[in-house]
Amino acid sequence: MDTRVSPIPVNPALAAGFRRLGIDPDEPEGLFRRATAAAIDTLGPLAPITAVAHEFLDSQLDEYEKFITRLFFPTKYALPAPPVSAASRLFALPPDDAVDRVSRLPDALLGDIVSRLPVKDAARTAALSRRWRGVWRSAPLVLADADLLPATSAVSSVLAAHPGPFRRVHLTSSRMAEFHGLLTSWLQLLTDKGIQELVLVNCRYPLDFALPATFLGMATLTRLYLGLWRFPCTAGHPRSTCFPNLRELELCNVLVESRDLDFILDRSPVLETLTVKGNLFKLHLRLVSQSLRCVQLFGSFIEEIYVVDAPRLEQLIHSEAWTPDGNRTRIKIGHAPKLNWLGYLDPENHVLDVGNTIIKAGTRVSPSTMVPSVTFLGMEGRFGVRNDAKMIPSFLRCFPNVETLYIRCGNTDQSAGKLNLKFWHKSGTIKCIRSRINVLIFRDFHGGRSELAFLKFFFENALVLKEVVIMLAAGFTSMEEVHSKVVSLGSVEWASDASLVLMTLCSDPRGGCIQSFKRGSDFFERDPFNNH
């Protein structure tokens, strides 16, 4: 009987990505088919994934490729910058100077210098002279296992030899067969020696390998990044387990359940930033925290985001929402008096609940259905879908004080019918457009009639508008084509006097690939929506 894995359809771009990694997706007994089959075999029996796996196997290739991309290409999400530069070098004697001035520096400064070197070079400074002999061991350890390649087994020696504390440790490149077996002892050493910042990525199959429970005892952690793990089960752990110093937590392609995320949030009294990327489990996220300031959720299956009590929360960003089987994420906003940034609200994928009221098309606004603290709002706009377009005025009315509106246009094959300027006029006055919004960033502009109708309505009504940035979707080939799409905007009577329009094919509008009418202000540096 032929037991080989059946062919798996992959589009040319995805196949090219695998080949760049040295993986041939067409090889009958190759890594791609074996790992894909094993991944589905591992994840399939798990209740939150079963329906999704069946959907993938029923020829839903777009969703299937997204799933495979999350499993095999975690670098889609950038790793934190390495703690040291591989190009760093230490020269005790400057050119044409016979005096060793560096060795005369105070111990604390020498330790800081050594901590900026790759760990092999840092340890070798002990051989420079008697003055340097104890510097490396007395300075907080900074370690990136990539600096030890190909001899990553040396990680054990370094962790054991250095007495601590450990300032920053990046374990992102250890692919040796013993990696999972050594992990428990490594984590125990990190715990015992006061690890502060840890980046830990699983580079060995299986991709859902469970982190040892030792990880939950790292009370000295201030920053934590985890990639490609299964989060340890927290059921039964004593209430004394906590992360009293943890300020930043990022989970990338980590299988984590709602109860475990609740456990971490409940036991991290100073946590300020939470980021979740590419989680495959269905999550119910309840935000009850006196310290959280920023929550970012990307490419994850989240059924509900409930901001229960988060008095310091300033940013809530949910992008690339993954909602299989037609589900939508419910975003419920309770007590968040400082919430300033919110997005991307998407009528197709989100249900908005403000003040225990589900916001629908035509919902009458009241003080209880408004979030006056939001001044930066991101929205998905599928202007070619009538039901989605009807939700846009209702969403905007919930945020009367928005000053910067970021709209990302979605493409669609559906027809909106006669969704013209008259449609938007019938929606009535929208307070934030009329008197608050001074910056509009309109991304992925396709030039459709429905998009143009919204822009005309916006320009006719925005009294305080100062800057408009229109970022073109892929596909425009010439300035003539662009002009043919936007020429009708020239006849609009703008309500404001000082509006700027910038068109580009690039992600950074200041490097416009077609034409830049005027370079805008530096708000792209300040805008967290700019990269999403």
Q: How are the secondary structure elements laid out?
A:
Elements: H1 12-20, H2 31-43, H3 47-57, H4 61-72, H5 107-114, H6 119-124, H7 135-138, E1 141-144, H8 154-161, E2 166-171, H9 179-192, E3 197-201, E4 223-227, E5 248-252, H10 258-266, E6 273-277, E7 283-288, E8 294-298, E9 302-309, E10 315-319, E11 329-335, E12 341-345, E13 350-354, E14 357-358, E15 376-381, H11 386-397, E16 404-409, H12 421-426, H13 431-435, E17 439-445, H14 449-461, E18 467-472, H15 479-486, E19 500-504, H16 523-526
Describe the structure.
It is a single chain. The chain has 532 residues and is α/β, with parallel strands linked by helices. Helix content is 27%, strand content 19%. The protein contains 16 helices and 19 strands. Strands 1-2-3-4-5-6-8-10-12-15-16-17-18-19 form a 14-stranded parallel sheet, with helices on one face. A 5-stranded mixed sheet has the order 7-9-11-13-14. Helix 15 (479-486) links the parallel strand 18 and strand 19. Helix 3 crosses helix 4. The longest helix has 14 residues, at 179-192. The protein is elongated, with a radius of gyration of 27 Å. It starts with 11 loop residues before the first helix and ends in a 6-residue tail after the last helix. The model is unreliable at 1-8, 37-61, 70-76 and 506-525 (pLDDT under 50).
